[in-house]
Every structure is written in structure tokens, then in C-alpha cells.
Design goal:
By secondary structure, the chain is of the alpha/beta class. It is built from 19 helices and 16 strands.
Length: about 550
Amino acid sequence: MDIILTGIARSGTTLTCSLLNMLPQCVALHETMNPSSLVGVPFPDGYLERISAFYTAQRHSLLGCGRAVSKARGGSIPDNPFESNIVSDRLRPSTVQNQEVVFGKNLKEGFRLVVKHPNFFTATLSVLKDVYPCYAIIRNPLAVLLSWHTIQAPVNQGRLPYGEAFDAGLKAALSSESDRLERQITILKWYFSQYATHLLPKHVIRYEEIVASSGRVLAIIDPDAALLARQLKSRNASALYDAGLVDQLANRLLQDDSICGDFYDLSEVESLRAAFMQTGGSISVHRETRDSSIVNAARANKPTSRMDEIGIRCNTDKASLGRSKIHSGQLIAKRPKGHDYLRKYEFFLSRFVNKPGYRMMELGAGPDWNIGASVHLWEEYFWRSDFRLHVVDLKSTVEKLANERVSVTIGDLGDRNLLNLLASSAYDVILDDASHLWIHQLLAFEILFPSVVPGGLYIIEDIETSFGTRREAWSQGAEIDSYTVLSHLMALVAGKGKCHPLLPITAPKEHPVLAFWSDIESITLFNDALLIAKTGYY
């Protein structure tokens, strides 16, 4: 089935593509066509023929080799195509470009192929709706206007080139209006009018309902979306938006109840304005709470990383920026630096992004006040619907993290029986960020490393508990620390099983983990984490 997806610019259409791409028999492409190649084509017949040919070519490619062309970033379609931070007064640029994306799905002939274009698809709904199922995404108009004022795009100045190219009336209206905001209001009216005129009400999907339903409202496009359980946070009052514009934009919207038709009530505009006023400009929760100056300082002289960007949003201390401590919705403390693992991890883990059936286990889910921050990171970074993450933690609060893609086990990682049970499954990656106690780190590695598949990775974080003033607190009576044991393992790997003559006489020559040396291709030590690649990784 070929499907048209359109919507108001900055309404959540790219988020919708990201969610649909989690489904097993659906591929959603983000602004993949070249609109300029359609301008001047005989309308409607030539136009429809070009679109049909595009669907046919992409469908053939996806069925043949699992690839298609789409605007993407780092080989995958993100949930937001624009820079996620404001730098000084600079507008946010687009961070996506057309590239070949490997979807890696076992697609059947009748899979759903969704192509998304907000502007020229909206302009031509009158003919598209008779050929294709058509859907549109809409959003609170105040949030839309605020977003338009932050991005590098023609709509920022109240123009819509590829909407205007296919709608002479829109072009004339915008050309005759000298005021930027009034042009933007004209564009908003045009979007809502097009959807009211040409689409069934149930085919117009509100961004707010996508967020509230964890994506399940998209089941009208693909029934498999009924199983989505994506943790989503509304960005309608994002800290990126200029709170100083809220009153001006809200007042203009409230002057005219015809702008949104029946899609939004003016009270919803007023409610969003009130929310901004109550929070001093944002309704951020801990996953979105970031002072842009701190973010930018943390970025200074560091290469960008998609995984690190997601980690900062998710408030995990694995990122280059430390997590903010939130209690009862209040910001208690900020830490300007994190462990900065993620920029390194991405080098090793990016190969798994498109792997069908990728399985990961994380030991430890974080403190109660920040439970599951890294879980949200992995869910977003590993976008495939068949990605599976198993989380193990001592705290019962971990149960709330469970969903279709995430399973949980509550238990003590000092329990050998529990570890033996966990080892009965196979994993591509196991990451230990649990108690950081030496005895737990070594016992978990001893029992779980064999369950890592060939070519997989085992990561142990917080090795720094083996050093300095932290040794006594984390030893818990153990005679040998984690780093001592693992450094001997490194020596065996480097020496192909031969012990180094200068190893201390206290070397744990009989420790069970030392027998793994022949199954290990490399051991990488950085910051305070150790990454072990099983044979077959390189």
C-alpha cells in the first residue's frame, strides 16, 4: 500500500515517520522527492505519473535490497530534522540530507510505503486524495508559530516555496502581504483549510494525540502502531522557543477563530500560553531540561554525536553533559560534565542500528529520581521495531520501563542464580552500569560474557571504583579489584595467552575470566569504562 503523509511544517510529521519506521511492515520516507522536478509537469496526469513512478522505484529497491532514499541523518530518519539547540541568536539549521537508508526489514509485497512532504503534498491534496490514502499531522498553532521562529527555513519568513509553486492563490496572498507574521498566519489558515476541505476528519491527526497515546493513534495509518508504547514528551512549550514572543503570537491567534477551523479551540491556545507563563518559558521535564549555555559549553571543541545528543536529551550521565537532578518536578542540581561515554560508544555501536533483531542487556537502570534515562536513549537510538532491550535492576521502580521493546528483571546482580538465568539468552551487547562493586562486576562478566554472540560487545562502566580513594568504599571486602583482574585479561589477549613477566606477583592467575582471552578480539579502555569485543567483531 502506498500512502501520502503531509502536515503543517513543524507539526510532528518527521516524528511520525520515525514512529512508523519502528513497525515491521512499514517504511516512512522523509521529504525524499525533489519538488522542483515536479514543477511545470502537466497537472494532474503527469504529476501523478511521476509520483507513482517514484513509489514504484522505492518499493522495488526496498524489496530487493532493503534500501531507499530519504532525508536522514547518520543513516537513519530522526524524529526531528533540525538542530536541537539554539546557539546565541542563530536559527536552528536542518541537520538532514538526502541519503540512502538501510532499513533491514523483512518486507512483504504489500508493505506500507509512506512518503512524507508537508508543503507540495498539502497543495495537491485535491488530486492525491483520489489516488492514495492521505493523512495529515497538525499541532497547536501557537507551538507551530513559535517553532517557525526558531528554524532556518522559508516559513520563518512567511513563505512556502513549494506550496506556492502548486497553489497560485497562496502565492498571490503571500506576495501581497508585507508583514511577516501575517504571512505566517495566512500559511496556517491555508494548511488547516486544505485538510478541512480534502481529508476525512479521522485522517487528520493531532500531534498532541500522538504524544498522549505513545504513538498508538497512528494505528489508523498502520494497525501495527496499536502496539507502540513509545515514551514521548510534548515539545509544545519547548525551552527552545522564545518566551518573549508568546504573548504577541497568542494575541494574534486569539483575534481570529477561523485560523484553525474546527481542529483547535482558542482555549487550547490560551492554555498553552498560560503554561509558558507558569514555567517562565518552558514546560520541560527532566529529559528536556537543559540550559543552552551549558550545553554549548559542553560541546566546545568536541565532535558532534547523534548518540550523545540523544543522551543529553534523555538526561543520562553517560553523555558529555552531566545529568540534571530532578525531584518532584523541581530542578535540584546540575552537573556540567558527564562521563562522556556516548561519543566513544557510537563508534562501536553504530553498526547495530540497522541490525534486524538486535538484542541488548543493560545492568542497572539508574537512581529512582532518574530511572531509565539510558533506557530511553537506547530506545531512541536503536529505532527498529524488532530491537529488544532487557534491563536488570534491584529496584521495583524499573517495572515502569517495560513496553513492547523493553523487558525488565528485578534482582540482585550478586545472585549467581539470577545471573545464570540471564545467561540463558543471547545478546549482541551487554552493558554493566549496575552497582560498580568489584565482586559484582567480575561475577557478572564471568557468567554473562559467554552469552554475548560472536562479534558482540561487553561493556563495564565505572572501572574507576578500582582506583584511588574510591577503592575502600567499593571493595566490600573483596581482595582483588576489577581493574587488576581485567588488566591481566588484557595482557593475555595482547600476548595470545602468554602472561607478561612483569605482572605483579599478586596476579589472579586462576581467576575464571582469564580463560576468556581466546574469545576476545580487543579490549578498549577509555575514561572509566572498559569495552570488550568478542571474536568476530572486526
